Amino acid sequence: MADQIREERRPSDAGGSESEGLSRYARVKLARHQERPFALDYVSDLFDDFLELHGDRRFRDDPAIVGGWASFRGRSVMVIGQQKGRDMKENVHRNFGSPHPEGYRKAERLMRLAEKFGRPVVTFVDTQGAYPGIGAEERGQAEAIARNLFVMAGLRTPIISCVIGEGGSGGALGIAVADRILMLENAIYSVISPEGCAAILWRSRDEAERAAEALKLTASDLLELGIVDELIPEPAGGAHRDPGGAAEHLGEALARHLAELSSLDAEELVARRREKYYGMGRWEEVPVE
Questions:
Q1: What is the structure's pLDDT at 19?
Q2: Is residue 4 pLDDT above 80, yes or no?
Q3: CB 106 within 8 A of CB 67
Q4: Max Cα–Cα distance, the chain, nearest Å
Q5: Cα dist. 104→55, 83, 146, 281 in Å?
Q6: 112-158 confidence digits (pLDDT tens)
Q7: Cys-Cys crosslink for 174: which of 28, 43, 97, 145, Cβ 3.0 to 4.6 Å?
Q8: Is 234 exposed, middle or buried, given 0-12, 13-18 or 19+ CB atoms closer than 10 A?
Q9: Tell me: the pLDDT tens digits for 231-277?
Q10: Strand, helix or coil at 187?
Q11: Which helix (H) or strand (E) holds 72?
């Protein structure tokens, strides 16, 4: 893996740390690295007294989304994250981090609980996408995600979303409508995977690297476009090389943004959040001289 990433550096970007000068597709591979810290790893490193809550109160518990109460530097918060597995057994249990509709409904239940008690919500985004199986569609996958977008847009408590690995399509967005979006340096966030894009545009998944360049899915790309609010640096070589160091950087940013958002009342918080998303993609015509 490391050899493949080194080979995919851009020749003009020699020197610097191991993460500098990587192609976009090399960062895709880092975002998918099997040893990369997952949501529960960050919960363990950054939060105390995590109490996991289960179930959507309609169908079942979805292990692909975890959540519950926790303490962050003395502040009570609701933590919600998409969770992958380390081995095949755990991946089957977690459905490879691809949530069913009951996962999104569980997330909605927990966010409403946080709003009821006036506690901030912190989410960890890491999924290839929502599960597209027949059962999930029959149980209202699209409606569950859409409902979360609606609820998060008007939730009267601070929301911070952290993209820690893969941010794939609506499956990621279902827990990522937030006041602040933080993104780790080697994470990705896109409407479609490079492989899926390549299969549609060029009829070949072999063009995935070309698609990754066109999609502009890296943290630096999205920061420049105004989609995310802060790029969180990773240790040299990726977060999996030093999970504790990655968590420390993320924790400092979380503390800063939570402090800033906590000073706003509910009305201003919701108004700013909505204006943030209304402004994405806004354009105007300028007459040519």
A1: 58
A2: no
A3: yes
A4: 64
A5: 10, 13, 10, 26
A6: 999 999 999 999 999 999 999 999 999 999 999 999 999 999 999 99
A7: 145
A8: buried
A9: 999 999 899 999 999 999 999 999 999 999 999 999 999 999 999 99
A10: coil
A11: strand 65-72
Are 28 and 217 contacting, i.e. CB atoms less than 8 angstroms apart? yes
Dump pLDDT digits (tens) for 208-220: 999 999 999 999 9
Residue 230 to residues 38, 41, 180, 190, 226, Cα–Cα distance (Å): 19, 21, 8, 17, 10
Total Cβ atoms within 10 A of residue 287: 4
Q: What is the Cα–Cα distance from 86 to 96, expressed in whole angstroms?
A: 9
Average pLDDT over residues 154-176: 95
Give the integer Cα–Cα distance in Å for 103 and 129.
12
86: number of CA atoms within 13 Å, CB side?
A: 8
Task: Tell me the backbone φ, ψ of residue 74, rounded to 5 degrees.
Answer: 85, 0
In 3D, which of 29, 167, 162, 26 has the Cα closest to residue 97?
A: 167
Average pLDDT value for residue range 59-82: 96
Token pair of 271, please? 């108004």
C-alpha–C-alpha distance, residues 13 and 91, integer Å: 36
Q: Which two tokens stand for residue 9?
A: 């550096």
Q: Both tokens of residue 12? A: 């003009």
User: What is the DSSP pairing of strand 65-72 with strand 75-82?
Assistant: antiparallel
Average pLDDT (176-192) is 95
**Residues pairing with 184 in the sheet:** 232
Q: What pLDDT is stored for residue 22 in this prediction?
A: 87
Mean pLDDT (the chain, rounded) = 91
Between the two ends of the chain, the Cα-to-Cα distance in Å is 52
The Cα 66–Cα 64 span in angstroms is 7
